[in-house]
């Protein structure tokens, strides 16, 4: 069993108070994971004084507060979720840093008897100056995955590549990753009516992955934007139209997984331009308000023409 909640607040103290109150409602659950969305270095310093930091993404929250957290609570879970957060390197450019991060992560997995190709199910890459540094991350990831046996003919991993400042000075790239220890199966989502294979435009991630363990199915949707099955940006310069196409694309992936919107239990939205919040906020409020925890952050997407992106998690009994 799992519970997700997203909370935003005006400052770190208020956020931690609300977080503590929410967690106290579920004494039988364990906190599996936290991701904080911050607006400033000062907020990080406040959190470090008041709480153990989990994943930290320097992505300002838009609307209703400037700091937020995604909480992931579990109970009687049939597998072990192995989170690694804030992985970084300060050596070299984004390509060299990504290579170092992945090699270190894979070494840690091997010490636990696991492999990235078999047991890692989700990654998040946060890239500062994403318009200029993203290509280096992509190159290093592709080369590393090939060495680890992940190619266009096998599979990649569900992932999000998005703007975010690393926690450590000098770091351009930061990675979070989720691996699983235990018995589980997985299949990948393609929705070919909406998407083309990612390798066709040089990136190496899956649109989504469906995990099955115990008596539940867990669908992890990668960062998804307004794209068509030729890899082209749909509705350039129109953030509202891009938001709708993005939502339609996610729906196609959920349909392929056998999920619907009522199965979705968390959503993170990334906006390239903070001023677009007023344009897209009503779309999400109308569709998900009071139903699904979500947060909208200021974080440029990996192509300048993409104005908005989202990711989500859905669960259902099987």
Q: What is the helix/strand order? A: EHEHEEEHHEHEEEEEHEHEE
**C-alpha termini separation:** 13 Å
Instruction: List the total number of helices.
Output: 7
The secondary-structure class comes to alpha+beta
Q: How many whole angstroms does the radius of gyration measure?
A: 18 Å
Query: Uncertain spans, ≥5 residues at pLDDT below 50?
Result: none
Strand segment count: 14
What is the helix content? 25-40%
Give the overall shape, derived from the CA principal axes: globular
Q: Which strand order does the major sheet show?
A: 9-10-11-14-12-13
Which sheet architecture does the biggest sheet show? 6 strands, mixed
**Proportion of residues in β-strands:** 25-35%
Averaged pLDDT, please? 95
Tell me what you see in this structure.
With 318 residues, the chain is an alpha+beta fold. It is built from seven helices and 14 strands. It has helices spanning 12-24, 41-50, 94-111, 116-119, 130-147, 239-257, 277-288, and strands spanning 2-9, 30-37, 55-57, 67-74, 80-88, 120-127, 158-163, 173-181, 185-189, 208-213, 216-224, 264-271, 294-298, 308-317. It has a six-stranded mixed β-sheet, covered by helices on one side. The protein is globular, with a radius of gyration of 18 Å. The model has no long low-confidence stretch (mean pLDDT 95).
